[in-house]
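On clarity, I found the account of how folds are encoded harder to follow than it need be. An entry of this sort, consisting of the sequence and the corresponding backbone structure tokens, reads as follows:
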Amino acid sequence: MQGKKFGTFAGVFTPSILTILGVIMYMRLGWVVGNAGLIGAIMIIILAHVIAVSTGLSVSSIATDKKIGAGGVYYILSRSMGIPIGGSIGIALYIGTALSIALYLIGFAESFNEYFGFGVTINDLRLTGTIALLSLTCLALISTSVAIKAQFFILAAISISLVAIFFGNSDFQPETIELFSSVDAVPLEVIFAVFFPAVTGFTAGIAMSGDLKDSKKSIPIGTLLAIGTGLVIYILVAIYLALNVSSDVLKTDYNILMKIALFAPAVVAGIWGATLSSALGGILGGPRILQAMSVDNVTPKVFRKGRGKNNEPVNALFLVFLIAEAGVLIGELDVIARIVSMFYLTAYGFINISYFLESWANPDFQPSFKIKSWIGLLGFMACFAVMFKLDMLAMFAAFAIIAGLYFWLQRKEVKLQSNDVWQSVWENVVNKGLKKIDANVDENSNWNPNIILFSGESKHQSYLLQLGKTVSGRTGIVTNFKLILDKKNEKPLKKVDQIVRNDNFAELGIFARQVKVDNIYNGITNIATTYGFSGVEPNTIMMGWPKGLENSTEYSKMTETLLHLDYNLLYLDFDRKKKFGKYKTVDFWWRETDSKNAEMMLNIARFIIASPLWSNTKIRVLFVNNNNINQEIINSKIRKLVEDLRVLVAIEIINNAVEQKPFYNIIEDYSKKTDLTVVGIPNYKIEKQAEFVLKTNQLFESIGSTLLVKAANNFNVLDLNFINNK
């Protein structure tokens, strides 16, 4: 059986407005006006309400899109931005809520002790605050419903006290009305930090989300009505004080409202009612945040247990009591206010950015209460700009704590059934990025590899994957395809089964797919023809060197198609004994026919030396001089080509004009001990493929791991014909 649920007025507006019109209004607003001046105070009130209004609008919009469960702000953030962010901010907000209870009770103790002539030392305030905390905790334990009903009487008391204030008389009339802060006044940053908790009360209603009849209706109406009412009252009281009390008195007398009121006991009742009801709002809302986090396994399970029809969070209430008591023991209202401000500003900043990201990126975000997305962004920037201005060190400390909580929750890997907004954000970023790339195609731009990799399956597969990622560079894309031979191939794999995820691919940052094919070569051709989409078209095919296929017509046809499609081709012959040696030496072999291959090799060189595995490697460019060209001419021209691509290499010219040794024989002589040799594939007629493959196989018998490259037409032609320079 479900317990009693509350409507907009009782469940949201009343707890919110009672927390807003609380200790700051009665005990510190005069101090704010006295130090900041009338215009300064109004600016502080308005700036604080910019954050409150933007956050209220953001949370109201989200509330009309999502089903808001127990936990209020935590529930919203965790369902929008995921458990790690939602949980870390939820914990911060929970602690802030618990400490705000201490803020209200210390304010109550200041007024109570002075009114009855009790001591006003810090220990006296601690004692009174502790007794009040115990009393309110007992009331919350008796019944939430009783506590809610008690708030109606307190609301009436506050209303009467405001009437008494505005119809009062002042014996402290100012000679001149101070519009701005004086030289000896408290800095505006400190004034704002003390005042800001006054506008945080609207979360008291949101925290009751699990106890509302209709949260989607009640949260927007109740929250915005409470914020608007609070803004009007704060400005009116600030103007009244500035016109009727001198700034010197306002700076020093925290109980000035009591002294100028038409009927002082009415103000006393308002102060006590406001401070106690605000504290009660925190006592009711704080445990519900902790209980909701425990239900999601963010915090210990012991706090999820409740009592009665409404599953009231008894265990969580005891922890709130302990944190609030720690705040009471601090004993200084201004210090507690500044701490609470940081916690709330952080939480509000993330509420606003949560709304902005939802409205900007999530196509499924369809709130019935619609506002402009920039409002969330404005609120986010305002929160962190204010935090930076208030206390930069405290801001960084808050970020460090929240970052620590974030990474802890991420490691716990707590998952929810609902999707968070980040997937939509990344999809939107990718979508806009692809459109931008596609609209600005520059054929002469630097090569950014997008490799389709066919690594096969063997115990050496990881080396081909590793090299594929190396030659793709930091920003390149590698997609590995596993081809499953199924000659009947009656039904393809389902889309979800085509995606391959394992730690090896994830560690290297390689995408992986698997598809059924009735023929390996046809499968490669089909993938090369159809895979990819605008903006990030694949431009390179990489696979192992096909030994023993020199007479395969299917392989010849596949190669001819890949060349026709104008792919860059990379074939690796992997030395299973030497592997890549010690990753210390790489040789690039050039000849006159490598005019396009040469530039591609230099790009590969740039990516290789940027890889941690190859960071200490020595790269040589070796050029075979078959025409007795002056070595200085060749060296100078190659040096210039190399410098243009900012690659540091050693250049070696091999004179072959007299001996005329075959190219592959020279490679055998010079690269026998090289860890990786890179050789260009020359232009040849397809009918001569068998001869080329046979000779290449013979070369591979005598040298280590070798990468054969064939550049597509988008690479520049480097002039390697030095005869005209003779």
